[in-house]
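step=encode ok
step=design start
structure_in=
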C-alpha cells in the first residue's frame, strides 16, 4: 500500500513538473505592427524581436507596412488580432483620417486584446482624426495626449516608486545616449507612471513609461525609442520584455 502511495505521489510530482515546464515554455504570440516614416523601423523590428525573444519565450509575427493605408487594410480584416496574445505597435501613422477605422481598432483593445505602444505610436491616429483635441479614442487607449517632442538630447530616465515587474530590475536612474523626448499635454487618470524622462526641457521631466487600463485591455506605453541606440540598451529591452508580459497578463 505504501509502495503504491509512493508510486502515485511520484506520478503526481512528475505530472506537475511536466505541466509546469509546458506552461513555462509556452511562448507568447506577439504581433509587431510597424512602419512608415521618420524612424528606422527596418532595423528596429530586428532589435525588438531578437532582444525580447532572448528574454522571454515569444513567437513574433511582424507586419511591416510601408504605408498607413496598408496597415489599415491589414487591421480591418475581421478577427485580425485573434491569433495573438499581444499587439506591439511601433508605428508613425500621424495623418490617418479614418475615424471609423481607429474606433474599431480601439474597440479590439477595449474588449481585452493587450497592446504595447512605442514612441511615435503616441503621435499616431489622433492628430487628424475628428473630435476634441486630446480626447480622441486613441488618446483614451494610450491614456495620454502628446503632439510634439523637443530637441534631440540624451534622456535621463528616472523610475518612480511604483512597484511593477517592468521596472523592478531597472536602475533607479539611467541615461540614453541619444533621445527625442515627447512632451505630454495630458495624462489620463487610468494610467500609472513607471518612469519619467528628463532632457533639460523648459517643460520639465515627462512621463516616458506608463501603463493604462483601457476597458478590459492592458496597455503598456513608452515614448522612448526614437533611436536604435536607445532600443538596443539592455535597460530598454528588459523593460519592453516585461511590459509585454504584463500587458499579456503573464506577469505572475
Ligand atoms: Zn521619433
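sequence_out=
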Amino acid at each position: 500500500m505504501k509502495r503504491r502511495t509512493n508510486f502515485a505521489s511520484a506520478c503526481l510530482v512528475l505530472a506537475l513538473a511536466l505541466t509546469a515546464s509546458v506552461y513555462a515554455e509556452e511562448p507568447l504570440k506577439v504581433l509587431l505592427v510597424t512602419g512608415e516614416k521618420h524612424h528606422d523601423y527596418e532595423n528596429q523590428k530586428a532589435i525588438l524581436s531578437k532582444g525580447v525573444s532572448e528574454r522571454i519565450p515569444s513567437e513574433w509575427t511582424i507586419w511591416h507596412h510601408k504605408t498607413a493605408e496598408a496597415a489599415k487594410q491589414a487591421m480591418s480584416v475581421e478577427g485580425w488580432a485573434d491569433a495573438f496574445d499581444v499587439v506591439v505597435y511601433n508605428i508613425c501613422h500621424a495623418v490617418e483620417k479614418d475615424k471609423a477605422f481607429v474606433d474599431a481598432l480601439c474597440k479590439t483593445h477595449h474588449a481585452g486584446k493587450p497592446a504595447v505602444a512605442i514612441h511615435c505610436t503616441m503621435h499616431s491616429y489622433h492628430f487628424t482624426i475628428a473630435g476634441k483635441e486630446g480626447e480622441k479614442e486613441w488618446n483614451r487607449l494610450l491614456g495620454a495626449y502628446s503632439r510634439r517632442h523637443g530637441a534631440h538630447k540624451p534622456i535621463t530616465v528616472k523610475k518612480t516608486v511604483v512597484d511593477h515587474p517592468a521596472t523592478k530590475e531597472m536602475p533607479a536612474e539611467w541615461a540614453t545616449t541619444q533621445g527625442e523626448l515627447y512632451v505630454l499635454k495630458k495624462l489620463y487618470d487610468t494610467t500609472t507612471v513607471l518612469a519619467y524622462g528628463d532632457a533639460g526641457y523648459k517643460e520639465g521631466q515627462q512621463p516616458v513609461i506608463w501603463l493604462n487600463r483601457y476597458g478590459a485591455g492592458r496597455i503598456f506605453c513608452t515614448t522612448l525609442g526614437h533611436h536604435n541606440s536607445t532600443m538596443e540598451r539592455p535597460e530598454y529591452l528588459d523593460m519592453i520584455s516585461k511590459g509585454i508580459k504584463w500587458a499579456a497578463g503573464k506577469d505572475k
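step=design ok
step=annotate ok -> The chain has seven helices and eleven strands.
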